[in-house]
Every structure is written in structure tokens, then in C-alpha cells.
Design a protein that fits this description.
- There is one protein chain.
- The chain is mainly α.
- Helix content is 71%, strand content 0%.
- The termini are close together.
């Protein structure tokens, strides 16, 4: 499989990952007795879509997703910006989780409702740096890959 090197390919993967995450979050919101099997039916394919797309995105964003010792200054700056933006996104997701927790407190079996939503939002939050990089990185220069065999 070749790594996607264009911004439009990375953005398509990012949209697919976000759709998968939203389907998982919707399944977590519906995870109660009358709609339990429908929610599980939503969460299975949604989880496959979001995890698969996020895994491909991590490969697509390339070096800025690597460890610090492997990066130059520009790539470190990109990675740090992505992590800062993701931190802000995770803060918003946790506020959503807090609001859902206040709603779920009045429901029967509130612990399982809140834990399912927290898990869904946490998985979404772990993908945010790759999503940010996929959306913001420009197209790679084709000259950088001349003479390199495709992966």
C-alpha cells in the first residue's frame, strides 16, 4: 500500500475518520436498553472506519507524527502545533463529556452510559493530532521522492 501524499487524499481520510468517530459517539449516546443492539450495530462499523482511517492517516502525515529525535526543527514545530490544537480539541470533548455526564446522571445505569461516551470521546481525542496534520500539511514535493521505491 502506498502512502497518500496529496492534501486532498489526506483530507478525504480525515473526513472518513471524523464520520467514523461521530458514528461511534452516536452509538455511545444510544447505548441504553431499548436501543442497545442498534447502538452496538452502529459502534462496530463506526469503530472499524475511524480506527482504519486514523491508522492510514498516521502513515499519511509522515514524519511529523514521529518521535522528537527523528525530526528537524520545522517538523518539530508542526508536531507541537498539532498536539497543542489537539489538546484544545480534547478540552472541548471533555466539556461535551461533562455535559453528557450531567444528563446521564438522571438516567438509569448512568455509569455505563458515561463510560461509553467517555471512551468514544477519548478515542476521538487520540486521533486529533493526525487529523490536524492531515488537514493542514501541504502536498509533498514530488522531487523529494524521485528514485525512491513506493512503499
Amino acid at each position: 500500500m502506498t502512502t497518500t501524499r496529496t492534501r486532498s487524499d489526506r483530507r478525504r481520510l480525515a473526513v472518513a475518520a471524523v464520520i467514523g468517530h461521530l458514528v461511534v459517539i452516536a452509538g455511545a449516546a444510544l447505548l441504553r436498553e431499548p436501543t442497545l443492539w442498534f447502538a452496538v450495530g452502529l459502534m462496530g462499523p463506526g469503530l472499524c472506519l475511524c480506527v482504519g482511517a486514523a491508522t492510514m492517516l498516521r502513515k499519511a502525515v509522515g514524519r511529523p507524527g514521529s518521535t522528537a529525535k527523528d525530526l528537524d526543527e520545522r517538523e518539530l514545530l508542526l508536531r507541537n502545533r498539532a498536539h497543542y490544537a489537539a489538546f484544545q480539541g480534547i478540552c472541548v470533548l471533555m466539556l461535551v463529556d461533562l455535559g453528557y455526564g450531567l444528563y446521564a446522571a438522571g438516567q438509569p445505569d448512568s455509569g455505563s452510559l458515561l463510560s461509553a461516551m467517555t471512551a468514544a470521546l477519548f478515542v476521538f481525542g487520540t486521533s486529533l493530532p493526525a487529523l490536524w496534520l492531515a488537514w493542514r500539511l501541504p502536498d509533498d514535493d514530488p522531487e523529494d521522492f524521485e528514485g525512491v521505491a513506493p512503499a
